[in-house]
Design brief:
Layout: E1 11-19, E2 25-34, H1 36-58
Antiparallel strand pairs: 1-2
Length: 74
Amino acid sequence: MKMKQGEIIQVGFEKKIIYEENNSVIQTHCIATDITEINIAYEKLRQSGEKYHTLHDMMIQGVVYQDSEGYILS
């Protein structure tokens, strides 16, 4: 959706249509929500997961987790 200032945003819509008994429309409700920031955060999360998935797949050596006393946790 293009805003008055010219900025383009991503929008999610929620809609509801109210009908009479004969199926003619009485009224409609529509709510538009700016979901641009949500989609940006989702894309960053996806890229981060992809980066670490690739890192994991490319590792030649394993990773060992130890506690502060040196015991291997996993």
